[in-house]
Specification:
Distance between the termini: 24 Å
CATH class: Few Secondary Structures
CATH topology: HU Protein, Chain A
Mean pLDDT: 92
Order of helices and strands: EEHHEEEHEE
Shape: flat
Radius of gyration: 21 Å
Number of strands: 7
Helix content: 25-40%
Low-confidence stretches: none
Number of domains: 1
Length: 132
Amino acid sequence: MRYKITKKKQALKDNEERYIATLELGEYISYDHVLEEMQTRTSLNKGSISSVLINLSELIISKLTQGHPVDLGPIGKMKPRISAQSKKTKEEVTTKTITTKSTLYLPSKEIKDAMNAVKFVKSDSSDEEVEG
């Protein structure tokens, strides 16, 4: 993977300039491209693959919104997650103290291993400035 060196101003440290490695992402792989690649890897046509993905999405939404973690095997696991304000007493804790609802994605061991094996190459386009 390619990375670039980015100059960043740290607002909490009197706008001190620092440098950080950031990923140089490629283009998004479109849904249609995913369908085409999956079609070449399987015996399914694009319509069948799309149907499977749409139904998988609906299943994940259904289970996560009911509070169930979902194990997707070689893809990984997804879990519903909340952030909430802490209170001094049980009585103060209500649904209004829940501040964020989100989904936690936990990649499979295979995906983690593949990411850990990634080699990095410095990009030619470095020293981009970012506020932060």
